[in-house]
Design a protein that fits this description.
By secondary structure, the chain is of the alpha+beta class. About 25% of the residues lie in helices and about 25% in strands. The protein is globular, with a radius of gyration of 20 Å.
Length: about 300
């Protein structure tokens, strides 16, 4: 992969306070523990620092927003662009009262759920089972245990390529299962969520039971990226994969989880190519045997080595 600068204005990061690293291995920042180098890896100190970075970045350099690295496959050749590690600097979490909670994009879903519990609000219990950040949850309408992120959204904030921030009400967006239509060149930086008042004790019990259910049914503690495929209408990807006899199917260092068929785990030092090849093979077999073409929930970025 060529890491040469693209044509355009000279990239200059004057006034940027956060760390900018070149050639950062993305395997160190993804939950699958795979991925080649990023041209730039930026850890913003705060919102103003993010604006300074975006204003200094060549307009032709692609941008990848990173949370906890779940739901993401960075290919072995790396990402010839700028990775913004939102979870490093955009971590403000505030109780605004009356059930309204403001969370910046880098706040983990689990932290948001715990915070809501302590404040006595209910409705965000399911987020304890989402292995990512609130920015990612907003971008893909993440869900678990039958609930989805956008069922809680009141208002959101986005930043554009020029580093300017914009606020929109939830009704401004078209939202569907694991999909949110976002203006091109914009990224979520914060959300305001409307929760309900409830018993902290009962909510603690609910969160604990959901996490226990997750641990029983998913390969928690192994290197995975969460669910690999979207559920097709009126069915479940895991059921289709298991019915096709694919639990335990392996390619290289990657295998279809024997615990949950919609998870692929890196259990033998897999490469990104191993994982992507296994994803393709699962899709082929399920399409052949069940007549259903599974759509990946995972985001693929970067170049093959």
């Amino acid at each position: 992969m060529s890491m040469a600068m693209t044509a355009g204005k000279q990239t200059a990061f004057e006034g940027v306070r956060g760390a900018i690293r070149r050639g950062e291995p993305m395997a160190e920042h993804t939950s699958w523990k795979v991925g080649g180098p990023a041209r730039y890896f930026f850890e913003p100190e705060d919102r103003d620092d993010l604006t300074a970075f975006l204003q200094g970045l060549d307009e032709e350099v692609p941008i990848l927003w990173l949370g906890l690295g779940s739901n993401l496959l960075v290919r072995d050749g790396g990402f010839d662009g700028a990775v913004i590690a939102a979870h490093r600097g955009l971590r403000a979490l505030t109780d605004l009262g009356h059930g309204r909670v403001l969370a910046e994009a880098g706040v983990s879903c689990a932290r948001f759920s715990r915070f809501a519990t302590k404040q006595g609000w209910i409705g965000a219990e399911f987020l304890a089972g989402v292995p990512g950040t609130m920015g990612g949850a907003l971008a893909m309408n993440a869900g678990a245990f039958g609930s989805e992120t956008w069922g809680l959204v009141d208002e959101v904030e986005l930043v554009d390529r020029e580093g300017a921030f914009h606020r929109f009400k939830a009704q401004s967006f078209t939202v569907s299962y694991r999909k949110v239509e976002i203006p091109k060149g914009h990224w979520f930086t914060a959300g305001c969520f409307q929760l309900r008042e409830g018993s902290e004790e009962s909510k603690d019990i609910t969160v604990r039971s959901l996490l226990e259910k997750r641990a029983e049914s998913q390969p928690v503690g192994q290197s995975s990226a969460g669910s690999v495929f979207r559920n097709p209408p009126n069915d479940h990807a895991a059921r289709l994969i298991e019915a096709a006899g694919l639990k335990g199917m392996r390619f290289g260092g990657a295998t279809v989880s024997t615990q949950h068929a919609n998870f692929i785990v890196n259990d033998q030092q897999a490469s990104a190519r191993d994982i992507e090849t296994l994803i393709d093979k699962v899709r082929e077999v399920v399409a052949d045997r069940a007549g259903v073409v599974l759509e990946p929930e995972v985001q693929f970025v970067g170049e093959h080595q």
